[in-house]
Amino acid sequence: MTFSDYKLERVGFGLILCIALLMFFQPLVRLHGHNGSQSINAINVRYELSQLQSNLRVLATINYPSDSGASLVSEAGAPVAAKPVPIPFSLRAASLVQWFVFGALGFCLLALFGHFFFKKAVAILSLVGGCAGAIAVLHVMLMGSDLRSWTEILVNTALLSPEDPSGAIRMASAFLVSPAFGLYALTACLFLVPILSFSRAIPRVRSVARGEQRISRSQPISLRPVNSRYPEENCRSLNVSEGGLLLETSLNHYYVGMEIYLTRNAHAAGPANAEEHGSVVRVQKTQKGGCRIAIRIIPDV
User: Fold this and answer.
1) Which pLDDT tens digit goes with each residue over 101-127?
2) CA atoms lying within 13 Å on the CB side of residue 234
3) Lowest-pLDDT range, 233-237, 250-254, 266-270?
């Protein structure tokens, strides 16, 4: 089964992170205003959200003539000027969306560099970026909900004239905001990397720890890589522990993360032991052209 090959796994994670990073050029937020519908990407997200805030502030402070019917009447019968309805906090804080989006893209870029150059903290960086993307999605969804509610309040409290002399009702009703495909894809890709990474790491975490007691023991071992492109080999163990063993091999095609099947006492008298599933966790080249490899046994789940 070649899908479990460590190299293929690394290529897959790299492709997922590259796809997430390409969402920089894709629509992240969908905005429908009085000028029509438009998609906002990471390049113009700051400007467009600032324009949205400016337009909403204008709508919130529109004044109408007293004969337009927009004024309210107190209990004593005296006309009372309508008070502006405050803009919801999610709309006033719309600029936070850009920072969460840039944060998600930034952590995606760091995870991609770490994946190819350092091979560390990739899952953690992707998880943090995914959380930033999820917050951006929730914030935009909340903005859309608050915008609809705010527009209804404007109309119901007569802050907007029924005659709509300035077209403000049509303008306010035209504003809609929602997450676009790019933001969903960015968040999903960033969450997919740690999910796959952690699920693949569970058997290795449960396997032997470095602190386990090791016993020097030489026994014949038969190795069969999961990836059938690599040849089988017979070798001997140097020491063993409860969850793993150290071997010296004559071939040098082994690498960290390689999954193999091994059989102990393969050539000893009597029936051989059952085949076990393991993962290479350390590789040390030898002067003879072979290598020493440490294998952790992956227990059956």
Assistant:
1) 999 999 999 999 988 877 668 889 999
2) 6
3) 266-270
Tell me the C-alpha distance between 160 and 150, whole Å.
12
Q: How far apart are CA 104 and CA 97, in angstroms?
A: 11
Q: What pLDDT band is residue 189 in, cutting at 50, 70 and 90?
A: very high
* DSSP 8-state class, residue 118: I
The two structure tokens encoding residue 176? 């809609």
Architecture of domain 215-297: Beta Barrel (2.40)
- DSSP letter string, 209-247: -TTS--EE---EEEEEESSTTSPPEEEEEEEE-SSEEEE
Burial of 26 (0-12, 13-18, 19+ CB in 10 A): middle
Go through 280-298 and write b for each residue having 16 or more CB atoms within 10 A of its CB, e for each that does not.
bbebeeeeeebbbbbbbbb
Contacts of 104 (CB under 8 A, 6+ apart): 129, 130, 132, 133, 136, 186, 187, 190
* Domain limits, the chain: 2-206, 215-297
pLDDT tens, residue by residue, 6-39:
566 778 889 999 999 999 999 999 988 766 778 8
Rounded alpha-carbon distances, angstroms, from residue 76 to 73, 79, 158 = 8, 9, 19
Beta-bridged to residue 215, according to DSSP, are 240
265 touches 276 (CB < 8 A):
no
Q: Residues 232, 222: contact at Cβ < 8 Å?
A: yes
Q: Is the pTM value of this prediction over 0.70?
A: no
Degrees, nearest 5: CA angle 181-186-192: 120
Structure tokens at 167: 């077209």
Q: Rounded distance, CA 281 to CA 293, Å? A: 7
Q: Please state, in angstroms and rounded to a whole number, the distance separating the CA atoms of residues 271 and 235.
A: 18
Distance CA 290, CA 296 (A): 19
